[in-house]
Amino acid sequence: MLSFINSIISKKRKQVIGLMSGTSLDGIDAVLVEITGCGTNTSVTQKSFITFPFPIGMKEMILRNAETNGGNVTEICKLNFLISLVYVDAIKALCNKAKTKLNQIDFIGSHGQTVHHLPHQDNLFGYQFGSTLQIGDPAVVAKLTGVLTIGDFRTGDVALGGQGAPLVPYFDYLLFSSIEKNRALLNIGGIANITVLNKNGSGKDVFAFDTGPGNMLIDYFTHKLFNKPYDENGAIGFSGKVNEKLLHGFIDLDNYIDKQPPKSTGREYYGAKFISSLRKKHRGITNEDWVATATSFTAYGVYRNYNIFIKNETIIDELFISGGGVYNKFLISELKRYFGKKVKIKNVKSLGISSDAKEAICFAVLANETLNGNASNIPRVTGASRKTILGKICLP
To answer: What pLDDT is attached to residue 203?
Structure first.
Protein backbone atom coordinates (compact mmCIF):
# COMPACT_ATOMS: atom_id res chain seq x y z
CA MET A 1 0.00 0.00 0.00
CA LEU A 2 2.72 2.47 0.99
CA SER A 3 4.69 1.75 -2.16
CA PHE A 4 1.56 2.43 -4.23
CA ILE A 5 0.96 5.78 -2.50
CA ASN A 6 4.65 6.70 -2.67
CA SER A 7 4.67 6.02 -6.41
CA ILE A 8 1.99 8.71 -6.79
CA ILE A 9 3.68 11.19 -4.46
CA SER A 10 7.01 10.84 -6.28
CA LYS A 11 5.57 11.95 -9.62
CA LYS A 12 6.68 15.44 -10.58
CA ARG A 13 3.40 16.22 -12.37
CA LYS A 14 0.19 14.73 -11.06
CA GLN A 15 -3.11 14.52 -12.94
CA VAL A 16 -5.80 15.14 -10.34
CA ILE A 17 -9.59 15.41 -10.37
CA GLY A 18 -11.34 17.64 -7.84
CA LEU A 19 -15.04 17.22 -7.02
CA MET A 20 -17.34 19.68 -5.29
CA SER A 21 -21.09 19.67 -4.72
CA GLY A 22 -22.21 22.44 -2.40
CA THR A 23 -25.26 23.64 -0.49
CA SER A 24 -26.76 25.24 -3.61
CA LEU A 25 -27.02 21.78 -5.22
CA ASP A 26 -26.53 23.32 -8.67
CA GLY A 27 -24.74 20.16 -9.77
CA ILE A 28 -21.35 18.52 -9.36
CA ASP A 29 -18.32 20.63 -10.24
CA ALA A 30 -15.60 18.36 -11.60
CA VAL A 31 -12.21 19.69 -12.62
CA LEU A 32 -9.06 18.11 -14.04
CA VAL A 33 -5.86 19.84 -12.99
CA GLU A 34 -2.15 19.21 -13.19
CA ILE A 35 -0.41 19.75 -9.85
CA THR A 36 3.30 20.13 -9.24
CA GLY A 37 4.87 20.50 -5.83
CA CYS A 38 3.06 20.87 -2.53
CA GLY A 39 2.71 23.40 0.29
CA THR A 40 3.84 26.90 -0.69
CA ASN A 41 5.53 25.40 -3.76
CA THR A 42 2.23 24.20 -5.18
CA SER A 43 1.50 25.03 -8.81
CA VAL A 44 -1.84 24.24 -10.45
CA THR A 45 -2.85 24.21 -14.12
CA GLN A 46 -6.54 23.80 -14.95
CA LYS A 47 -7.03 21.45 -17.90
CA SER A 48 -10.77 20.79 -18.09
CA PHE A 49 -13.96 21.52 -16.15
CA ILE A 50 -17.62 20.52 -16.21
CA THR A 51 -20.69 20.96 -14.05
CA PHE A 52 -22.52 17.65 -14.08
CA PRO A 53 -26.25 17.77 -13.26
CA PHE A 54 -27.94 15.71 -10.59
CA PRO A 55 -30.67 13.41 -11.94
CA ILE A 56 -34.13 15.02 -11.93
CA GLY A 57 -35.64 14.81 -8.46
CA MET A 58 -32.38 14.01 -6.68
CA LYS A 59 -31.83 17.61 -5.55
CA GLU A 60 -35.18 17.52 -3.78
CA MET A 61 -34.27 14.21 -2.14
CA ILE A 62 -31.01 15.68 -0.82
CA LEU A 63 -32.74 18.85 0.36
CA ARG A 64 -35.38 17.11 2.43
CA ASN A 65 -32.67 15.06 4.12
CA ALA A 66 -30.57 18.15 4.85
CA GLU A 67 -33.27 20.06 6.75
CA THR A 68 -33.21 20.13 10.55
CA ASN A 69 -35.28 17.20 11.86
CA GLY A 70 -36.06 16.31 8.24
CA GLY A 71 -33.64 13.45 7.65
CA ASN A 72 -34.66 9.89 6.93
CA VAL A 73 -31.95 7.37 7.82
CA THR A 74 -33.02 5.01 5.04
CA GLU A 75 -32.78 7.74 2.39
CA ILE A 76 -29.49 9.08 3.77
CA CYS A 77 -28.02 5.56 3.60
CA LYS A 78 -29.12 5.26 -0.01
CA LEU A 79 -27.91 8.76 -0.88
CA ASN A 80 -24.47 8.02 0.53
CA PHE A 81 -23.95 5.50 -2.26
CA LEU A 82 -26.16 7.14 -4.88
CA ILE A 83 -24.24 10.44 -4.79
CA SER A 84 -20.99 8.50 -5.22
CA LEU A 85 -22.42 6.82 -8.33
CA VAL A 86 -23.30 10.23 -9.79
CA TYR A 87 -19.79 11.44 -8.91
CA VAL A 88 -18.38 8.51 -10.89
CA ASP A 89 -20.48 9.49 -13.91
CA ALA A 90 -19.27 13.08 -13.53
CA ILE A 91 -15.66 11.86 -13.47
CA LYS A 92 -16.19 9.81 -16.62
CA ALA A 93 -17.85 12.75 -18.38
CA LEU A 94 -14.95 15.01 -17.40
CA CYS A 95 -12.37 12.52 -18.66
CA ASN A 96 -14.29 12.18 -21.91
CA LYS A 97 -14.28 15.95 -22.38
CA ALA A 98 -10.57 16.15 -21.54
CA LYS A 99 -9.77 13.17 -23.78
CA THR A 100 -8.08 11.57 -20.78
CA LYS A 101 -8.37 7.94 -19.68
CA LEU A 102 -9.24 7.09 -16.08
CA ASN A 103 -5.99 5.16 -15.68
CA GLN A 104 -4.11 8.40 -16.42
CA ILE A 105 -5.60 10.04 -13.31
CA ASP A 106 -3.30 9.84 -10.29
CA PHE A 107 -5.89 10.58 -7.60
CA ILE A 108 -9.24 12.24 -6.87
CA GLY A 109 -10.11 14.79 -4.16
CA SER A 110 -13.81 14.82 -3.27
CA HIS A 111 -15.58 17.18 -0.89
CA GLY A 112 -18.72 15.05 -0.66
CA GLN A 113 -22.22 16.44 -0.14
CA THR A 114 -22.89 18.07 3.21
CA VAL A 115 -26.28 17.02 4.56
CA HIS A 116 -25.79 18.37 8.07
CA HIS A 117 -23.19 20.46 9.84
CA LEU A 118 -23.29 20.83 13.64
CA PRO A 119 -19.77 21.90 14.66
CA HIS A 120 -20.82 23.60 17.89
CA GLN A 121 -20.01 21.61 21.02
CA ASP A 122 -22.95 19.45 22.07
CA ASN A 123 -23.23 17.54 25.36
CA LEU A 124 -24.63 14.04 25.11
CA PHE A 125 -24.21 11.16 27.56
CA GLY A 126 -21.34 13.01 29.23
CA TYR A 127 -19.44 13.59 25.97
CA GLN A 128 -18.82 17.00 24.43
CA PHE A 129 -18.40 17.05 20.66
CA GLY A 130 -19.27 18.70 17.37
CA SER A 131 -20.34 16.80 14.29
CA THR A 132 -20.61 17.08 10.52
CA LEU A 133 -21.82 14.72 7.81
CA GLN A 134 -20.68 14.64 4.20
CA ILE A 135 -22.13 11.80 2.13
CA GLY A 136 -21.04 10.42 -1.22
CA ASP A 137 -18.56 7.95 0.23
CA PRO A 138 -15.07 8.31 -1.30
CA ALA A 139 -14.47 4.56 -0.92
CA VAL A 140 -17.25 3.92 -3.44
CA VAL A 141 -15.68 6.41 -5.85
CA ALA A 142 -12.26 4.76 -5.46
CA LYS A 143 -13.56 1.25 -6.05
CA LEU A 144 -15.68 2.12 -9.09
CA THR A 145 -13.08 4.31 -10.82
CA GLY A 146 -9.99 2.35 -9.89
CA VAL A 147 -8.42 5.64 -8.76
CA LEU A 148 -7.16 6.47 -5.27
CA THR A 149 -9.66 8.91 -3.73
CA ILE A 150 -9.30 11.27 -0.78
CA GLY A 151 -12.46 12.63 0.83
CA ASP A 152 -14.24 13.52 4.07
CA PHE A 153 -11.94 16.47 4.76
CA ARG A 154 -13.99 18.18 7.47
CA THR A 155 -14.21 15.39 10.04
CA GLY A 156 -10.64 15.59 11.37
CA ASP A 157 -10.89 19.29 12.13
CA VAL A 158 -14.27 18.90 13.88
CA ALA A 159 -12.81 16.03 15.95
CA LEU A 160 -10.25 18.54 17.28
CA GLY A 161 -12.94 21.02 18.30
CA GLY A 162 -12.92 22.99 15.05
CA GLN A 163 -15.72 24.14 12.79
CA GLY A 164 -14.52 21.92 9.96
CA ALA A 165 -15.08 24.92 7.72
CA PRO A 166 -14.17 26.86 5.81
CA LEU A 167 -11.35 24.77 4.35
CA VAL A 168 -10.77 26.87 1.22
CA PRO A 169 -8.57 29.45 3.08
CA TYR A 170 -5.52 27.17 3.11
CA PHE A 171 -5.86 26.80 -0.66
CA ASP A 172 -6.36 30.57 -1.02
CA TYR A 173 -3.17 31.20 0.95
CA LEU A 174 -1.11 28.80 -1.18
CA LEU A 175 -2.24 30.22 -4.52
CA PHE A 176 -3.38 33.82 -4.11
CA SER A 177 -1.30 35.61 -1.49
CA SER A 178 0.14 38.97 -2.55
CA ILE A 179 3.09 40.90 -1.12
CA GLU A 180 1.68 44.16 -2.47
CA LYS A 181 -2.01 44.24 -1.52
CA ASN A 182 -4.32 43.08 1.23
CA ARG A 183 -6.69 40.67 -0.44
CA ALA A 184 -9.95 39.00 0.42
CA LEU A 185 -11.49 36.14 -1.52
CA LEU A 186 -15.25 35.75 -1.27
CA ASN A 187 -16.85 32.54 -2.47
CA ILE A 188 -20.60 32.81 -2.94
CA GLY A 189 -22.13 29.35 -3.12
CA GLY A 190 -25.17 28.40 -1.07
CA ILE A 191 -23.28 29.92 1.86
CA ALA A 192 -20.81 32.82 1.49
CA ASN A 193 -17.32 32.47 2.94
CA ILE A 194 -14.49 34.97 3.01
CA THR A 195 -10.71 34.56 3.27
CA VAL A 196 -8.50 37.50 4.28
CA LEU A 197 -4.88 37.45 3.11
CA ASN A 198 -2.74 40.16 4.67
CA LYS A 199 0.14 41.25 2.44
CA ASN A 200 2.45 41.00 5.46
CA GLY A 201 0.98 37.76 6.76
CA SER A 202 2.01 34.13 6.90
CA GLY A 203 -0.16 31.03 6.75
CA LYS A 204 -0.97 31.20 10.46
CA ASP A 205 -2.28 34.77 10.01
CA VAL A 206 -4.96 33.81 7.47
CA PHE A 207 -8.42 34.82 8.69
CA ALA A 208 -11.56 33.26 7.25
CA PHE A 209 -15.12 32.23 8.08
CA ASP A 210 -18.63 31.86 6.67
CA THR A 211 -20.25 35.31 6.53
CA GLY A 212 -23.82 34.04 6.24
CA PRO A 213 -26.12 33.14 3.34
CA GLY A 214 -24.82 33.13 -0.20
CA ASN A 215 -27.21 32.08 -2.93
CA MET A 216 -29.33 29.94 -0.61
CA LEU A 217 -32.02 32.48 0.30
CA ILE A 218 -32.01 34.09 -3.16
CA ASP A 219 -32.46 30.71 -4.82
CA TYR A 220 -35.27 29.78 -2.45
CA PHE A 221 -37.35 32.87 -3.22
CA THR A 222 -36.58 32.69 -6.93
CA HIS A 223 -37.77 29.08 -7.05
CA LYS A 224 -40.76 29.57 -4.75
CA LEU A 225 -42.05 32.79 -6.29
CA PHE A 226 -40.94 32.53 -9.93
CA ASN A 227 -40.46 28.78 -10.45
CA LYS A 228 -36.87 29.38 -11.58
CA PRO A 229 -33.80 27.66 -10.12
CA TYR A 230 -31.88 30.93 -9.65
CA ASP A 231 -32.02 34.62 -10.49
CA GLU A 232 -30.19 34.63 -13.82
CA ASN A 233 -27.89 37.67 -14.07
CA GLY A 234 -29.78 39.19 -11.11
CA ALA A 235 -32.61 40.20 -13.46
CA ILE A 236 -35.36 39.69 -10.87
CA GLY A 237 -33.37 41.55 -8.23
CA PHE A 238 -32.94 44.51 -10.56
CA SER A 239 -36.68 44.51 -11.32
CA GLY A 240 -37.55 44.82 -7.62
CA LYS A 241 -36.63 47.18 -4.81
CA VAL A 242 -34.91 46.55 -1.51
CA ASN A 243 -37.66 46.77 1.09
CA GLU A 244 -36.03 48.39 4.12
CA LYS A 245 -38.58 47.03 6.60
CA LEU A 246 -38.09 43.51 5.27
CA LEU A 247 -34.32 43.93 5.20
CA HIS A 248 -34.37 44.81 8.89
CA GLY A 249 -36.63 41.82 9.41
CA PHE A 250 -33.89 39.62 7.93
CA ILE A 251 -31.28 41.33 10.11
CA ASP A 252 -33.33 41.10 13.31
CA LEU A 253 -34.03 37.41 12.77
CA ASP A 254 -30.42 36.51 12.03
CA ASN A 255 -28.31 35.46 15.03
CA TYR A 256 -25.39 34.23 12.92
CA ILE A 257 -23.95 37.22 11.08
CA ASP A 258 -22.79 39.04 14.23
CA LYS A 259 -21.47 35.85 15.82
CA GLN A 260 -17.76 35.98 16.64
CA PRO A 261 -15.49 33.82 14.41
CA PRO A 262 -14.44 31.04 14.19
CA LYS A 263 -17.82 30.15 12.74
CA SER A 264 -19.47 28.26 9.93
CA THR A 265 -23.05 27.65 8.91
CA GLY A 266 -25.28 25.96 6.36
CA ARG A 267 -28.77 24.86 5.43
CA GLU A 268 -29.45 23.73 8.99
CA TYR A 269 -29.59 27.45 9.92
CA TYR A 270 -30.70 29.27 6.75
CA GLY A 271 -33.27 26.66 5.82
CA ALA A 272 -37.02 26.22 6.04
CA LYS A 273 -37.41 27.37 9.66
CA PHE A 274 -35.58 30.66 9.04
CA ILE A 275 -37.57 31.38 5.87
CA SER A 276 -40.93 30.36 7.35
CA SER A 277 -40.53 32.81 10.20
CA LEU A 278 -39.86 35.66 7.75
CA ARG A 279 -42.79 34.79 5.50
CA LYS A 280 -45.22 34.80 8.42
CA LYS A 281 -44.12 38.21 9.70
CA HIS A 282 -43.89 40.10 6.40
CA ARG A 283 -46.85 40.23 4.03
CA GLY A 284 -47.93 42.46 1.18
CA ILE A 285 -44.44 42.51 -0.36
CA THR A 286 -44.07 41.96 -4.09
CA ASN A 287 -42.30 38.84 -5.32
CA GLU A 288 -39.61 40.96 -6.97
CA ASP A 289 -38.98 42.82 -3.72
CA TRP A 290 -38.55 39.54 -1.82
CA VAL A 291 -35.76 38.52 -4.21
CA ALA A 292 -34.15 41.98 -4.24
CA THR A 293 -34.18 42.18 -0.45
CA ALA A 294 -32.84 38.64 0.04
CA THR A 295 -30.01 39.56 -2.34
CA SER A 296 -29.24 42.77 -0.48
CA PHE A 297 -29.26 40.88 2.81
CA THR A 298 -26.64 38.48 1.45
CA ALA A 299 -24.39 41.43 0.52
CA TYR A 300 -25.11 43.04 3.90
CA GLY A 301 -23.90 39.90 5.67
CA VAL A 302 -20.55 40.06 3.89
CA TYR A 303 -20.07 43.78 4.55
CA ARG A 304 -21.25 43.60 8.16
CA ASN A 305 -18.72 40.87 8.90
CA TYR A 306 -15.98 42.91 7.23
CA ASN A 307 -16.80 45.93 9.34
CA ILE A 308 -16.93 44.24 12.72
CA PHE A 309 -14.41 41.39 12.40
CA ILE A 310 -11.90 42.24 9.65
CA LYS A 311 -11.48 45.98 9.11
CA ASN A 312 -9.76 46.74 12.43
CA GLU A 313 -7.02 44.25 11.59
CA THR A 314 -6.84 44.40 7.79
CA ILE A 315 -8.23 47.04 5.45
CA ILE A 316 -8.65 45.12 2.23
CA ASP A 317 -7.63 46.60 -1.12
CA GLU A 318 -9.14 43.92 -3.38
CA LEU A 319 -12.11 41.59 -3.03
CA PHE A 320 -12.17 38.66 -5.49
CA ILE A 321 -15.50 36.91 -6.06
CA SER A 322 -16.01 33.27 -7.04
CA GLY A 323 -18.86 30.76 -7.00
CA GLY A 324 -22.29 30.95 -8.57
CA GLY A 325 -22.97 34.36 -7.03
CA VAL A 326 -20.41 35.96 -9.32
CA TYR A 327 -23.03 35.81 -12.12
CA ASN A 328 -25.69 37.64 -10.13
CA LYS A 329 -25.09 41.20 -11.28
CA PHE A 330 -27.55 42.63 -8.79
CA LEU A 331 -25.70 40.91 -5.94
CA ILE A 332 -22.38 42.28 -7.20
CA SER A 333 -23.89 45.78 -7.47
CA GLU A 334 -25.12 45.51 -3.87
CA LEU A 335 -21.65 44.45 -2.70
CA LYS A 336 -20.16 47.44 -4.51
CA ARG A 337 -22.75 49.72 -2.93
CA TYR A 338 -21.94 48.49 0.56
CA PHE A 339 -18.15 48.47 0.17
CA GLY A 340 -17.85 51.75 -1.78
CA LYS A 341 -15.05 52.74 -4.10
CA LYS A 342 -12.08 52.08 -1.82
CA VAL A 343 -12.32 48.30 -2.24
CA LYS A 344 -11.88 46.97 -5.77
CA ILE A 345 -14.33 44.13 -6.40
CA LYS A 346 -13.20 41.71 -9.11
CA ASN A 347 -13.95 38.28 -10.54
CA VAL A 348 -11.42 35.69 -9.32
CA LYS A 349 -10.75 34.79 -12.97
CA SER A 350 -8.50 37.88 -13.03
CA LEU A 351 -6.17 35.79 -10.84
CA GLY A 352 -6.02 33.15 -13.56
CA ILE A 353 -8.52 30.66 -12.17
CA SER A 354 -12.10 29.86 -13.14
CA SER A 355 -14.66 31.19 -10.66
CA ASP A 356 -16.82 28.11 -11.29
CA ALA A 357 -14.00 25.63 -10.76
CA LYS A 358 -12.30 27.26 -7.75
CA GLU A 359 -13.74 25.08 -4.99
CA ALA A 360 -13.33 21.87 -6.98
CA ILE A 361 -9.68 22.83 -7.58
CA CYS A 362 -9.36 23.47 -3.86
CA PHE A 363 -10.22 19.86 -3.01
CA ALA A 364 -7.79 18.56 -5.61
CA VAL A 365 -5.10 20.64 -3.87
CA LEU A 366 -6.19 19.56 -0.38
CA ALA A 367 -5.99 15.92 -1.52
CA ASN A 368 -2.44 16.57 -2.72
CA GLU A 369 -1.56 18.04 0.69
CA THR A 370 -3.03 14.96 2.41
CA LEU A 371 -0.89 12.59 0.33
CA ASN A 372 2.19 14.69 1.07
CA GLY A 373 1.52 14.62 4.82
CA ASN A 374 0.83 18.33 5.14
CA ALA A 375 -1.68 19.77 7.60
CA SER A 376 -4.25 21.82 5.71
CA ASN A 377 -6.55 23.21 8.36
CA ILE A 378 -5.85 26.64 9.85
CA PRO A 379 -6.70 26.62 13.59
CA ARG A 380 -7.26 30.37 13.66
CA VAL A 381 -9.91 29.90 10.98
CA THR A 382 -11.67 26.78 12.23
CA GLY A 383 -11.01 26.94 15.97
CA ALA A 384 -9.41 23.48 16.05
CA SER A 385 -6.99 22.79 18.90
CA ARG A 386 -4.12 22.15 16.49
CA LYS A 387 -3.11 21.76 12.86
CA THR A 388 -3.82 18.38 11.35
CA ILE A 389 -3.73 16.38 8.13
CA LEU A 390 -7.25 16.23 6.69
CA GLY A 391 -9.13 13.62 4.71
CA LYS A 392 -9.46 9.87 4.37
CA ILE A 393 -7.39 7.99 1.82
CA CYS A 394 -9.44 5.32 0.05
CA LEU A 395 -7.63 2.75 -2.05
CA PRO A 396 -8.98 1.58 -5.43
So the answer is: 85
